[in-house]
Amino acid sequence: MKASTTKEPTVTPIPFELEKIRADFPMLSQTVNGKPLVYLDNAATSQKPRAVIDRIMRYYTEEYATVRRSIHKLSEKATLAYEGTRKRIAQFLNAPSERNIVYTKGTTEGINLVVHGFGGKFLQAGDEILIGATEHHANIVPWQMLCARNGAKLRVIPCHETGELMLDEYEKLLTDKTKIVSVQYVSNALGTIHPIKQMIALAHAKGIPFLVDGAQAAPHMNVNVQDLDCDWFVFSGHKACGPTGIGVLYGKEDMLNRMDPFLGGGDMIESVTFEKTTYAPIPHKFEAGTPAIADVIGLGAALEYLSGIGMENIAAQEHALLEYGTEVLAAIPGLRIIGTAPTKAAIISFTIRGVHPHDIGTLLDQEGVAIRAGHHCAQPAMQRFCVPATARASFSFYNKKEEIDVLAAAIKKTIEVFT
Ligand SMILES: *Cc1c(COP(=O)(O)O)cnc(C)c1O
């Protein structure tokens, strides 16, 4: 490349004190293979701030008791923290009430709950379920399982070479047979931010309910479920600085009321006799058994932490990292970025001519750089782009520009080794 054509990569001011934020995350000061950890696998799971770790520790060391069942003081306190988190989540998503918030194990369970509780109850043979071409397996497989049970059909909205869904095809696929649309807000494999609000409006114009897989959206941008007008919205705690094993299903009140529970047992009932059981009101109708109390409380601390930084600030910082990362990586000869939509989250999927993605991942690991290499639980999306796998760098607000420089240097080293 001629010097005159090299332009300086974009540098945008950071909207918060980055080093102070980084100090909140104990994992970020770890070393891997003798090198400082450069953690760029945030789309798989995010690191945890001290506030979350300490909150869980405090519950186990000072407040531990179960919720809702016992009347002693500790249980009352645990119940307050547990139900208080529901309020915080409702605020985080701008849901009308905490009654709209169901605790799940994660995005996967949230989708399965809707598949079972709504799809299993209302869909029949010949009905159609519409999903996108770049869905995560969690938004494909449960629907296929339902189709195998009841004879419904899965239809797929195709996508352009950029990773954007074809909206004109989408409109054609919305027919009298379509009974539900279920689409990701943001692609974990390609980073595309889909025009989900517009897609919901198109479905609703035909009276079709819409489920949003928000796993890659809720941790990274302001989400307003009332403004989107989605019928359901799901996300996972562990991708939003919270613990594993806890997630959220938001549902409109009438939808949740119409749905069947997925699991039966304690805590989800109003009264039980051997002849007949009546269910508890929403959201408890969907929460059988002793819940993941510590993880719920930890998720509450995580959302408080994110809100403290501000979702706009998080989105701005991650967008700056995306722009910088895209410029730096696109300049590497032989590197192809897969997913080039104009609106993207901070995810860069790429291949390198002549190097298998797994070899990229392994060599980067030796440099302390953690990325993901594989199909990203989105094999059909990989097939669409005629690649078996990609390497993927995904950024969080706690990442810094210098880490992208380390990534780029490690990629260049990898190319030298292999070509
Ligand atoms: C991670 C992810 C899921 C699955 O989330 P789990 O936490 O594994 O249940 C679903 N959809 C998308 C878009 C994801 O990124």
Q: Explain this structure to me?
A:
The structure is a single chain. The protein is of the alpha/beta class and 419 residues long. It has 2 domains: 133 residues, Alpha-Beta Complex (Aspartate Aminotransferase, domain 1); 256 residues, Type I PLP-dependent aspartate aminotransferase-like (Major domain) (Aspartate Aminotransferase, domain 2). Helix content is 39%, strand content 16%. The chain contains 14 helices and 17 strands. The strands form 5 sheets. Strands 4-10-9-8-7-5-6 form a 7-stranded mixed β-sheet, with helices on both faces. The chain has a 4-stranded antiparallel β-sheet with strand order 13-14-17-16, covered by helices on one side. The longest helix is centred in the N-terminal third of the chain and has 21 residues. The model has no long low-confidence stretch (mean pLDDT 95). Bound molecules: pyridoxal-5'-phosphate. The site of pyridoxal-5'-phosphate (PLP) has 12 residues, from α4.
Overall CATH class of the largest domain = Alpha Beta
How do the strands of the widest beta sheet line up side by side? 4-10-9-8-7-5-6
What is the arithmetic mean of pLDDT? 95
- Give the termini distance in whole angstroms: 19 Å
**Which regions have little confidence, pLDDT < 50, spanning 5+ residues?**
none
List keywords for this structure.
single chain, 419 residues, alpha/beta, Aspartate Aminotransferase, domain 1, Aspartate Aminotransferase, domain 2, 2 domains, 7-stranded mixed sheet, 16% strand, globular, binds pyridoxal-5'-phosphate
